[in-house]
Amino acid sequence: MSTHTQDPPLRHQDAYAVVVTETVDDIEQLNELLHSNLPVLLVRDLDQARRLMDGEPPTGSGTDTPRPARLRVGRLEIRPEEQRALWRDAPLELTAQEIGLLGCLAGHGGSVASYRELVQDVWGASCGVDTTVIHSAVRRLRRKLEKAGVDVEIASVRGHGLRIAYGGQQTSVN
C-alpha cells in the first residue's frame, strides 16, 4: 500500500487556472488533480484564451461579425451593446442574460436560433449548458415580459431551438 501525502492547495490571491476544454467534467477532474479552489476560466480553444488574456472582449458565437447597435421586434427595442431593452421607449428590468437571449433571438430575424447558437451567444460556451438551463431562463424572461405588457412571443421549436415574433411579424435590425 502506497501512502501519498497531498500537497497543500494553491493559495495565491491572484491565481487562476485557464482550461481549454469543451466539457465541464474536464474542469472537475482538473480541480481534483490540483486539490485547489482556484477560479477556473473555461475556454473553447487557445485562440479564445489568448484573446481573453490580451484583454479582448469575448466574441460570443466565435465570429468577428459586430452586433447591430439596435434590434427591433415590434415595439420592443433591444440594445445589446448597452445591455438595455425598451418596450415602447420604457426600459425593462431585465438581467444581462435575459437581454442577451432577446438579442440573440431578435438577431435571427424571426427564424429559429438553435440551442447551440443560444449557448454560444448568451452563455459564451460551446457546451456545458443544458437545454433545461435555457428553458428556465426563457421561462423567467417570458414572465417578466408578460408582467411588463410586452407583446412578443418566444416560441420553442421542439428539438431545434427558439424564435421570437411580434404579432406574426419578422424582426428588424437598425
Automatic annotation (TrEMBL):
SMART domains in the record: Trans_reg_C
Superkingdom of origin organism: Bacteria
Ranges where the OmpR/PhoB-type domain occurs: 68-166
Xref: CDD domains: trans_reg_C (cd00383)
Protein name (database record): Winged helix-turn-helix domain-containing protein
InterPro entries: OmpR/PhoB-type_DNA-bd (IPR001867), Sig_transdc_resp-reg_C-effctor (IPR016032), WH-like_DNA-bd_sf (IPR036388)
Keyword DNA-binding: yes
